[in-house]
Each structure stands twice: as structure tokens, then as C-alpha cells.
Design goal:
The complex is a heterodimer of chains A (366) and B (161). With 366 residues, chain A is α+β, with helices and mostly antiparallel strands. Chain A has 13 helices and ten strands. In chain A, 49% of the residues are buried. In chain B, strand 1 and strand 2 form a beta hairpin. Classes of the chains: A alpha+beta (366), B mainly alpha (161).
């Protein structure tokens, strides 16, 4: 496997499948693990980091799940390639900043990625589209169990898995889902939802954008604490809360259709018009307009065949994805022009929004 | 403990500074600390920022200037980075970390997954210890027949499985 194959093909998790995929974009679980008797990567000197890396990497590569893997040292990836992997959630921002002494191994389907010497010696993560936190946990748990047979993980009888940051100690697990919640944002109920979710120990934050601003109406819900609860308990609670958020979003959509249909159709219509005809578009505007297109498809304004191109555009209009085809770094205005070109190209065949079908649900593909 | 400056009032402010690996400790009373302007000698520590106000102090309180024997990490390093040096740091700074972890998490004890191979190793070790204890007992009571059996069992343990 080469980086080119990875860059050319988007991962399985972007395919827009799985339960509740209209609202739940993806589910992800990551486990933090460290090996006994070594310093954590942030404190270890370069020679020690290299020792750790060489002790771990072969063990990861020989996993059956990694039989057709892409495995690479951090210093062998360009800044742009790393950024593409960050945009696909295959490596973290922190890992993208690493050089000699770190590596990443991922499977061909891009549903499994293992970072070596990130903040912890090992960060194992599994990723799928739709609401699949339980299945995703099972997948990563299996990998963890297999690795545990070969590596001596740092484990404390009382504190559980030991991690570089005490916020991860215990299970070392962060489970999360990415949710698309345009109706809760439009109806200004999102803050209430966020507060309610916070109260039960889960964190909600905008996926893109800083602070409370959530671009593209995309939010990430995850567990905040890692000690004192079993993994399955955390996963079950997260799953339940996500189901409730889905219900709220669906109610908000039904309500908008009933009481603010004009506003809704206007938003979707304007998004369609701008996306199809603009010649310069920054990523913030693109994310927000694509979000309304996605909502429009869910509500039946567009044919179901429009779904995949729109889902792909969410990823392809990100800065690094834009530039990976051009082989050179583009200035902001050049990126905006290219972004608009790509969107127009992809939506070229899109029919006008079908107002007559509003509220009847997605139109089946022909 | 009296104040190092006025030597009269009892000290309530304990300042520990590490400069180039050398530790300096000053104990001050309330009024002297204000006089000297020692309100926040270390500036706004990163640990505070990450873990809530007072986190760096919590770490400091329990550990003095102790360094982790495993990796040479000190509490000053934790203040800077908000990350620990190695797994052993959890033992070295156990007292101070205990308070932090309590504030941060739902519980104080891990109830989830346990690495199975580690469990097997621990079970093996405790089994071995029991055999050795029984062997000593058998020898003491001159039960040489049992002692011989136990000795053989212990020998088997040395063969890795």
C-alpha cells in the first residue's frame, strides 16, 4: 500500500452507510496504550522514542487486520499528506506535527488507524460511518487484545491503563460520534441540547471552527471521563444519548417543515444556487451550504443519488484535499476558486430542488 | 513552622522554586508574602490551565521536589506540560495525582478491561509464592515427601509456558 492509494480513495467511513447515517456521519473509538518501562513519547529522548517505535511497529504490522496496511514513518510524509490524513481523521493534529520517532499504520479501508508515539506510545482507533459506536468499540477492543498478548502494557491495578495525560487514565478510551444537526441549530435548540448532554458527563463540540462555532452544523459528542466506569457502560451511555439527539433533530426537522417551510426551502434553494454558480468560495461558506444541501436530500428536495456527491464534497473541499491534486501550495484566493470549480463540477447534473416532494422523505434512487 | 522573614508569625505560604535543577524553599506568613509580592511566583502554570485552578499546587503539595526514579520527571515538568513522564510517575506522584484524578473523573478506580496476559502473570506469581510458602512449611514440619513434590512443582514454574 502506498500513500497514493490512501490519498486517491476515501475511506469506507465516508461512504454514508450504516444505521442513522443521515444524521450520524461517523462513529469513532480510540484507545490510549503505553508500554511498561519506557517514558511517554513527550518526555522520552529521541533514542528512546526510536527504541519504542521499533519495539511496537512490527507488532502492529503483523496484526491480521493490518495485512494490507499502509505503514509509514512520520518523517516520510509531507506536510500536505499529513494534513489530508488529519482531515480524514486518520491521524490527529498533534500526530501531524511529529517527525522522527513516530509512525502511523492504517488498513486499506481506512477504518483502522494506529498512531505510534503520539501523546501515548499507542493510539488505536477505529472508525465507521453511521451510528456504530458499539461495533467500532468491538473492532478496536479486538485489536487491543491481540496487541496485549505481544506488548507489556502499562497497567495499574487501581488506576487501569496508564496514560501520559491523567485525563485519559483508566480505560484510555475516547468514544465519539460526528453528528449533523442543522435543524437543532436553525431552531436555536442546540445550546439546550449541548447543556443537557454536558450534564451527564459527555462533551459536545463543533467539529470544525473554533470555540462554540460549529461549521457545517457538524458536532462531535464524546465521553469526557475515562476512570470509574467500564468501557461497555461508557459506550452504552453514549449510544443512548446519540439516539436521543437524533430524535430531537428529527422532531426539529418536522417542526421546521410544518411551521417554517418557507424559511427552510429558502435556505436549501439559496445553498443550491450558490454552490452551483459561485466561482469563489471559502471553506467555511462551503461547509455551511453543503450542510443545507445534505438536509435538503434528507427531506426529499433532491434525489437520493445526490447524497454521495454531497458527502464527498464535505471532504474534498477541505484545504489539504483541494491541494493534493495540484501538487503545489495554493494561496487562499486560488483555493477558493478551485473549491468553487470542484463543487460546480460535481453538482453539474443536479436537478433543481423538488418543492413538491418536501416532507415526504428522501427520494429513492432510480 | 514560622515565617522565614519575620520569624514571628506562622508560615502559610510555602514557595518552592527549582532553578537549574536546584531546589529553593521559602516559608512565608500571610503579611510577609504580600509584602514581598509573592502572590503568584510561578506565573500561570499550564497544569492549572489544563486541570483547573490549583492543580499545580496540588501536585506540589504532595511531592516536594521529588523526581520520578523511573524517568527523572519532576512536578515542575508536569506544571509546564500537563503530561507525565512515564507510567511509574503515577506511583511517584501518587498522593498529589490522587486529588487531581478525583476531580477529573467519575470514579477513582478502574472497573473496565484488564489485560489478560498481565492477569495470568500475576496469578502465576501469586501461585508460585504460595507453593514456596508451602514448601517452607513442609520443610519446617519435616514432611519431606510433600516438600519434594512442591520442589518439583516450583521447578516446573521456571520453564516458560
Amino acid at each position: 500500500m502506498s500513500i497514493h492509494n490512501i490519498l486517491l480513495n476515501t475511506g469506507e467511513w465516508l461512504r454514508g452507510e450504516g444505521p442513522h447515517h443521515q444524521i450520524v456521519v461517523s462513529s469513532r473509538v480510540r484507545l490510549a496504550r503505553n508500554v511498561q518501562k519506557f517514558s511517554f513519547p513527550g518526555w522520552a529522548k529521541k533514542t528512546e522514542r526510536l527504541q519504542i517505535l521499533e519495539a511496537i511497529k512490527p507488532r502492529v504490522e503483523e496484526l491480521p487486520e493490518m495485512s494490507d496496511a499502509f505503514s509509514v514513518y512520520s518523517q516520510d510524509l509531507s506536510a500536505l499528506e499529513k494534513q489530508v490524513l488529519v482531515e480524514r481523521h486518520l491521524i490527529s493534529r498533534e500526530h501531524a506535527a511529529k517527525g522522527v520517532g513516530s509512525a502511523v499504520v492504517m488498513n486499506k479501508k481506512q477504518t483502522l488507524s494506529i498512531m505510534i508515539n503520539e501523546e501515548d506510545h499507542l493510539r488505536l482507533q477505529a472508525l465507521r460511518s453511521g451510528l456504530q459506536v458499539k461495533a467500532v468499540f468491538k473492532a478496536i477492543d479486538k485489536v487491543d487484545t491481540a496487541l496485549e498478548e505481544k506488548l507489556d502494557f502499562a497497567f495499574h491495578a487501581k488506576l487501569g491503563y496508564l496514560t501520559a495525560c491523567p485525563t485519559n487514565v483508566g480505560t484510555g478510551m475516547r468514544a465519539s460520534a460526528m453528528l449533523h444537526l442543522p435543524a437543532l441549530v436553525m431552531s436555536e435548540q442546540i445550546n439546550q441540547v449541548i447543556q443537557a448532554v454536558n450534564k451527564i458527563g459527555l462533551a459536545v463540540r463543533g467539529l470544525y471552527g473554533e470555540g462554540t462555532e460549529a461549521l457545517g452544523n457538524l458536532f462531535q459528542v464524546s465521553n469526557q471521563t475515562t476512570l470509574g466506569e467500564k468501557e461497555e457502560e461508557i459506550i452504552a451511555r453514549l449510544h443512548k444519548v446519540i439516539e436521543q439527539i437524533i430524535e430531537h433533530e428529527q422532531n426539529a426537522r418536522a417542526n421546521l417543515l410544518q411551521k417554517q417551510a418557507t424559511k427552510l426551502m429558502d435556505q436549501v434553494g439559496r445553498s443550491y444556487g450558490l454552490l452551483r454558480h459561485a466561482h469563489s468560495m471559502n471553506s467555511k461558506e462551503a461547509l455551511n451550504l453543503l450542510s443545507f444541501m445534505k438536509l435538503g436530500i434528507d427531506l426529499g428536495f433532491f434525489n437520493e443519488t445526490c447524497r454521495q456527491p454531497i458527502d464527498e464534497l464535505f471532504m474534498e473541499t477541505q484545504p489539504a484535499h483541494l491541494q493534493k491534486g495540484t501538487q503545489q501550495k495554493l494561496a487562499a484566493d486560488e483555493r477558493d476558486a478551485l473549491r468553487a470549480d470542484i463543487i460546480r463540477g460535481k453538482m453539474n447534473e443536479f436537478p433543481h430542488p423538488d418543492i413538491g416532494n418536501v416532507g415526504k422523505g428522501p427520494q429513492p434512487a432510480e | 513552622m514560622n515565617c522565614d522573614v519575620c520569624k514571628k508569625n506562622s508560615a502559610t505560604v510555602f514557595l518552592t522554586q527549582i532553578v537549574d535543577g536546584k531546589m529553593q524553599k521559602v516559608n512565608l506568613c500571610e503579611s510577609c508574602s504580600k509584602e514581598k509580592g509573592v502572590t503568584d511566583p510561578t506565573g500561570f502554570a499550564l497544569a492549572d490551565l489544563l486541570l483547573g485552578l490549583g492543580a499545580a499546587q496540588e501536585i506540589e503539595k504532595g511531592t516536594g521536589v521529588q523526581k520520578c526514579p523511573g524517568c527523572g520527571f519532576s512536578q515542575a515538568d508536569f506544571k509546564k506540560t500537563g503530561r507525565l513522564g512515564c507510567p511509574q510517575c503515577y506511583e511517584t506522584f501518587a498522593d498529589a495525582l490522587g486529588t487531581l484524578i478525583k476531580q477529573m473523573h467519575k470514579g477513582t478506580e478502574h472497573t473496565g478491561k484488564v489485560p489478560q496476559r498481565l492477569v495470568r502473570t500475576l496469578e502465576r506469581e501469586s501461585h508460585l509464592k504460595e507453593l514456596q510458602r508451602n514448601l517452607r512449611k513442609a520443610v519446617a514440619s519435616e514432611d519431606f515427601e510433600s516438600a519434594a513434590t512442591l520442589r518439583d512443582k516450583i521447578r516446573e514454574f521456571d520453564v516458560p509456558k
